[in-house]
Amino acid sequence: MVLVDEFLAYLGVERGLAQNSIESYARDLVQFARFVEESGGGADIGEVTQDTIMAYLAHLRRQGKATSSICRQLAAIRGLYRFLDREGKIRRDPTVNLGSPKQEKRLPGVLSLDEVGRLLEMPSPQTPAGVRDRAMLEVLYATGMRVSELVSLDMGDLNVEMGYVRCLGKGSKERIVPVGRVASGWVEIYLRASRSNLVRSRAENALFVNQRGRRMTRQGFWKIIKAYAAKAGIEKDVTPHTLRHCFATHLLENGADLRSVQEMLGHVDISTTQVYTHLARGKLKEIYDSAHPRAKGARGAEKRGSK
Q: What is the pLDDT of residues 237-294, one digit of tens each?
């Protein structure tokens, strides 16, 4: 595990990855190291061959792991051995010419405007926690931030008067995202009337705090949004990331250009953002079919002509 620890240290110090990303790498590599040890009679991770890695991937498939999960684990293994090869810690990189399993591009789940509205209205404005929750939901939908970025916000990162938020994305990359008036208004109410009732220490710099007065966690907010979705009667699987998907899809449906959405989401590669265009196209087709006077007539003519 010494070689794995060196790689994880490299990710944190030189690559500047967030702690959450490093922990994800660590989980995947610990599982891989355990497989190597158990299947090879205590074999060292530095002596792994390509056959061992392929056997591990087959092991994951037999366990019923999703293709996306297998691809993620392979990416961690590939990153480890590329690092060890550059550092001269191994004789040969066993992942060279090793292909990745093909995975289907799954469209993200998106709520309708009505469902988003119902979800946002669930928190009670009569309690400090309710006002906080409303502000967090509004900001998430207004900016498309990742939940890790939302809970990492400090006092001063969100400028209510100017209507923008400064957030740190993956790899500690900073970006500025506009915040609408509704979301800004709820944050203003939260700061003026609710945060002081939740926070316990003046030294706490987190914008959004939990019931113990400390920074809200990803897990804590995940439970909050799940509870509100159930209360709103939304049967779809709703997570904090769902509002990020809604943000992108609803912007594109209403005419926003892809590059602007890419920048606001913090995507490095525009192909990552393009998945939302499929959802937007579907909505445009619905609008066309319901609004154009000859949309249905044309297809009706085709059917009549085929008889």
A: 898 888 988 888 888 888 777 788 887 887 776 666 666 666 555 555 555 566 656 6
CB 186 within 8 A of CB 131: yes
Q: What is the pLDDT of residues 14-54, one digit of tens each?
A: 888 888 889 999 999 999 988 988 876 556 788 888 888 99
How far apart, in Å, do the first and last CA atoms of the chain sit?
71
Same domain, 158 and 71: no
Pair (77, 158) in one structural domain: no
68 CB-near residues (< 8 Å, 6+ apart): 103, 106
Looking at residue 276, which CATH number applies to its domain? 1.10.443.10
User: Number of structural domains, the chain?
Assistant: 2
Looking at the chain, the whole-number percentage of residues with pLDDT higher than 70 is 82
| Residue 301 domain-assigned (yes or no) | no
* Whether 7 and 128 share a structural domain: no
What H or E segment, with its residue span, contains residue 166?
A: strand 164-168
> What is the DSSP secondary structure assignment for residue 176, as one 8-state letter?
E
The per-residue pLDDT for range 171-195, each reduced to its tens digit, is 677 888 889 999 999 999 999 999 9
Residues 223 and 183 in one domain: yes
Coil, strand or helix: which one is 120?
A: helix
Whole-angstrom Cα Rg for the chain: 24
Give the CA distances from residue 237 to residues 108, 110, 146, 184, 275, in Å, rounded to whole numbers and listed in that order.
Answer: 11, 9, 17, 27, 19
Give the span between the Cα atoms of 75 and 99, in whole angstroms.
11
Structure tokens at 26: 């660590």
Domain hosting residue 159, numbered range: 113-289
- Give the alpha-carbon dihedral of 108, 111, 112, 115, to 10 degrees: 180
pTM (2 decimals)? Answer: 0.60
Tell me the catalytic residues.
Answer: 146, 170, 241, 244, 267, 276
